UniProtKB/TrEMBL annotation:
Pfam families: CBM_6, Fn3-like, Glyco_hydro_3, Glyco_hydro_3_C. The keyword Magnesium does not apply. This is Glycoside hydrolase family 3 C-terminal domain-containing protein. It comes from the Bacteria. PROSITE patterns: CBM6 (PS51175). It comes from Streptomyces roseolus. SMART domains: CBD_IV, Fn3_like. InterPro entries: Actin-crosslinking, BXL, CBM6, Cellulose-bd_IV, Fn3-like, Galactose-bd-like_sf, GH, Glyco_hydro_3_C. The keyword Electron transport does not apply.
């Protein structure tokens, strides 16, 4: 190839060529070392070609995160609660515009955004519940598709940002998240976990995915064969797969899946990982591992080329190489009036009215309010929030809406002194902070003090500081000084009042009070050490800590009773702090409200039965609401959360948020955190057979709605559904019409009902609107394990329309010819062990490190696998199993006796050393159910029969 002249730019600079040709040209000009450099998150510049440095990964879950002030929208679970795809698309568009605007002034801001999270909210105790949209794959994919379309922009060639979906795959626990394996049977995989990803990718606005930390079926997601077998087949676009932070090293260091980092890096790259997020900004470790893998013959240069091609494809789509033609290059939309209004609109639409007995809500003008609770005057952020430019707490919103003369406040936390054994008290010294850390009126601004280590540590004095003790449940508390600063432990071990809020990867602002003798130890949770008073101040102790007496100056419950008794209505604002008891790295242990908040609620109800509970939380609670006249829930709603809640309570806006996940009544309703079999475990609204506290899709309104006229017909493989909804109330309100389907007499376990479509509409009083949906008949299909594909079974199907999964207003039944099932031809094809119809006490594990599944019994138990409708033709006389490990496989038909026992030889090899074992087994001709029993640490891959 001849070198281009200055007047002839190289082909990769020619915007008239296809992106594929431009990528090929640029790739051909890169040296091997330059290409290897592109595999790290922080890809260096190639100055000789005029190629800039590039960083994958900009967090943008509900606003631009970690890069300073930005518009903060409701948490993802709150956006899911809006059930409004058009609103969420506009939020995504606003976020992407702010990414571009911030990028223009700070090149640390990346255009490859790591959002949204499409992990399904299968289990409400998952610490990262706030990051997902819904427990339902249809709703999740609809919201995620809308958000990615907003992030991408609508230009046909150039993307405003390049969204990456998180976290691939079946990731719903933080406990042991890098070493635990999710056992996911094929039906659950295809009907549930893969579906949310697939539908979003196929919609065409996704640039890539990020594998999760966990393992699926015994294999780390970062070497998942599903990346090539499933993901890459869903689109013709080059999808960029970005590793999660530190996960490539986990393959050796914590998971011990590979012996060397060279093996692990090669396996991840071959599986489809294109960008390695590891060792921060230092790329030298990853690039050295890639070079080592190449030298050992584990990789070829063409393997590297495949990953770099996907990396470059994203950069071309972002307009990097056509700056003068990039329509997004001059975007300056940042903290605009439109974005502020959108943040408020989103927060309003996310509020869910769960209960409203006796019409207590909306509140009448002039109502005297008592606003109480630990979240009443808070506007909490989470790990993926930006820094607030504007904020409204519920107290501020209600005070602004009803007037200060009508609002009284009590936080409801205990005010305490901490007395040492020497008779002194913990004291926060005065600070000589300069004017730069003072607000407009000279008061200390806690936000400007966050993270400082030059402030004086706490001391022990004759006169103590009165602290606000905020009890977050499970023994976790925070302590706050009178000026609003939280006690925090710095790297030097000293305790200072220096944080505006609890936060950080390791939260330094949380403590426990542990009974000890006649007092309490005050233990810092972040270090696990008790506190002691030393000559240089209060600090974490290397040994025994100080014994403190807790002197209660005022009980939070007394303060609540006092203001509640003098109010017309009490609004209790309770919930969680997103950095405490349920967050990334930490699952919750219970659905229960913190005990202190329960006591505040009881105190309020006793003083004033007209008590409204407003839950502001990242996840569901099991709340005893029998004596509560009104109950609302909203996720942490970003900068406008307080204004939104006030406008809903006042009736300025009729609530129309809907629950994106089931609210269970009790912990006993929940499956095990690591039980990912939503079918066998009867999980989520799809299969749960108990009585929920509040069902999926539930949400009340200040209006009433009437449904009628359900009509259905099938044309050209499409199911057409239409009906009308009328606003029979006297206020303008939104309704969320929900369409569900159900197989009436399924041959295999199917959902009780399954969301097929939804639409949020605005109706004025008396207005009647026709709503129509079009569904491909494939939406009624299930994954047939016998045929390894989706199939629409013949039979009757119910079409259900209503206001929630349990509030069904209209129903019609239709019959479909479908595609009949056929018996499994086991004599010809055998059985893959993982393709069972039913099981007990087994889990799925990796057949090899790179592909395939086997089944093994849960340790210490006898596993059972059932395969229905197996066709043995004229009969069989033998059975052969392919298995590894030790133990036995037992064959029976249906509920009959054991026909054969196959024993694996002992000590024949490791978990991937499969042996073939045969035994005689006389099976009569015809169709039978096959039952296999697994005993011992056997790993069963396949079964075959001989005639």
């Amino acid at each position: 190839m001849s070198a281009p002249t200055p007047s002839t730019p190289p082909p990769f600079r020619d915007r008239h060529l296809s992106i594929a040709k431009r990528v090929d040209d640029l790739l051909s000009r890169l040296t091997l070392d330059e290409k290897i450099g592109f595999l790290h998150q922080f890809a260096p510049a190639v100055e000789r070609l005029g190629v800039a440095a590039f960083r994958t990964g900009q967090e943008a879950l509900h606003g631009v995160a970690w890069m300073g002030p930005a518009t903060v929208f409701p948490q993802a679970v709150g956006l899911g609660a809006t059930w409004n795809t058009e609103l969420v698309r506009r939020v995504g568009e606003a976020v992407s515009r702010e990414v571009r605007a911030m990028r223009a002034r700070d090149d640390r801001v990346g255009l490859n955004v790591w959002a949204p999270t499409v992990n399904l909210l299968r289990h409400p105790l998952w610490g990262r519940n706030e990051e997902g949209y819904s427990e339902d794959p249809e709703l999740t994919s609809a919201i995620a598709t809308a958000y990615t379309r907003g992030l991408r922009g609508d230009h046909p060639t150039y993307w405003r940002t390049a969204p990456v979906l998180k976290h691939w795959l079946a990731h719903n626990n933080e406990t042991g998240r890098d070493v635990t394996s999710s056992s996911v049977r094929p039906r659950v995989l295809h009907e549930y976990d893969l579906r949310a990803f697939r539908d979003t990718v196929e919609a065409g606005a996704v640039a890539g995915v990020m594998p999760a930390y966990n393992l699926v079926n015994g294999r780390p997601n970062h070497v998942s064969p599903y990346l090539r077998e499933q993901l890459r087949g869903w689109t013709e676009e080059e999808l960029l797969v970005c590793s999660d932070a530190g996960a490539p090293s986990n393959l050796v260091d914590s998971e011990h899946y590979f012996d060397t980092h060279e093996e692990a890096t090669a396996a991840a790259l071959l599986a489809g990982v294109d960008s390695f997020t590891d060792h921060g900004t230092d790329s030298s470790t990853i690039t050295a591992r890639v070079r080592g893998a190449l030298e050992q013959g584990l990789l070829t240069e063409s393997d590297v080329d495949a990953a770099v091609r996907r990396h470059l494809s994203v950069r071309f789509r972002l307009g990097e190489f056509d700056p003068e033609h990039d329509p997004h290059a001059l975007t300056a939309a940042f903290d605009t009036p439109d974005h502020r209004a959108l943040a408020q609109e989103a927060a309003e639409q996310a509020v869910v009215l769960l209960k409203n007995s006796g019409g207590l809500l909306p509140l009448a003008p002039g109502t005297r309010l008592a606003v109480v609770g630990p979240l009443a005057d808070e506007c909490k952020l989470d790990w993926y929030s930006g820094t607030l430019l504007h904020r409204r707490t519920p107290l501020e919103g209600l005070t602004e809406r009803f007037g200060p003369e009508h609002v009284r406040f009590a936080e409801g936390v205990d005010r305490i002194l901490l007395k040492t054994s020497a008779g002194t008290f913990l004291h926060v010294p005065e600070t000589d902070a300069d004017d730069a850390v003072r607000g407009a009126e000279g008061a200390l601004d806690p936000a400007l003090l966050a993270g400082r280590t030059d402030l004086p540590p706490l001391t022990a004095e004759a006169t103590g500081t009165e602290f606000s003790l905020v009890d977050w449940g499970e023994g976790v508390l925070t302590l706050r000084a009178p000026d609003g600063r939280y006690l925090s432990v710095a790297e030097d071990g000293l305790v200072r009042a220096s944080a505006d809020q609890p936060g950080g990867w390791v939260v330094q602002e949380t403590f426990r009070l542990e009974p000890h003798g006649n007092g309490h130890l005050l233990r810092h949770i972040g270090t696990g050490r008790p506190l002691s008073v030393a000559a240089d101040g209060l600090k974490v102790a290397a040994g025994d800590g100080e014994i403190f007496e807790v002197v209660v100056v005022e009980s939070g419950e007394d303060a609540v009773r006092r203001v509640a008794a003098r109010a017309d209505v009490v609004v209790v604002v309770a919930g969680n702090d997103p950095h405490i008891n349920g967050r990334e790295t930490e699952d919750r242990t219970t659905l229960a409200l913190p005990a202190h908040q329960e006591r505040l609620l009881r105190a309020s109800r006793a003083a004033n039965p007209r008590t409204v509970l407003a839950l502001v939380s990242a996840y569901p609670y099991a709340v005893d609401h029998a004596e509560l006249p009104a109950l609302l829930w909203t996720a942490h709603g970003g900068q406008a959360a307080g204004t939104a809640l006030a406008r809903i309570l006042a009736g300025d806006v009729s609530p129309a948020g809907r629950l994106p996940q089931t609210w269970y009544a009790d912990d006993s309703d929940l499956p095990g955190l690591l039980d990912y079999d939503v079918i066998g475990g009867r999980q989520t609204y799809l299969y749960f057979e108990g009585t929920p506290l509040f069902p999926f899709g539930h949400g009340l309104s200040y209006a009433s709605f009437f449904y009628e006229g359900l009509r259905t017909h099938i044309e050209d493989g499409t199911l057409h559904v239409s009906f009308t909804v009328a606003n029979t109330g006297d206020v303008v309100a939104d309704e969320v019409a929900q369409l569900y389907t159900r197989a009436v007499e399924p041959s295999v376990p199917r959902p009780r009902r399954e969301l097929a479509a939804h639409r949020r509409v605005t109706l004025v009083p008396g207005e009647v609107m026709e709503i129509a949906f079009r569904l491909p008949l494939s939406a009624l299909a299930f994954w047939d394990v016998a045929q390894g594909r989706r199939r629409v079974a013949p039979g009757r199907y119910e079409i259900l329309v209503g206001a929630s999964s349990e509030d069904i207003r209209l129903t019609r039944t239709l019959g479909l010819d479908g595609e009949p099932s056929v018996p499994r031809p086991v004599l010809a094809d055998g059985l893959d062990a993982v393709d069972f119809d039913d099981q007990s006490d087994t889990e799925i594990v990796d057949r090899t490190r790179t592909a395939g599944d086997s089944v093994t019994p849960v340790t210490g138990r006898t596993g059972q696998l059932v395969y229905r409708d197996c066709d043995f033709g004229a009969g069989a006389d033998g059975i052969t199993v392919e298995a590894a490990g030790e133990g036995t496989v037992e064959l029976a038909l249906g509920d009959g006796p054991v026909l054969a026992v196959l024993t694996l030889p002992r000590g024949t090899g490791g978990r991937y050393d499969y042996a073939t074992v045969s035994a005689p087994a006389v099976v009569a001709g015809g169709v039978h159910d096959v039952r296999l029993g697994l005993r011992g640490p056997v790993r069963l891959a396949r079964v075959a029969f001989t005639a």
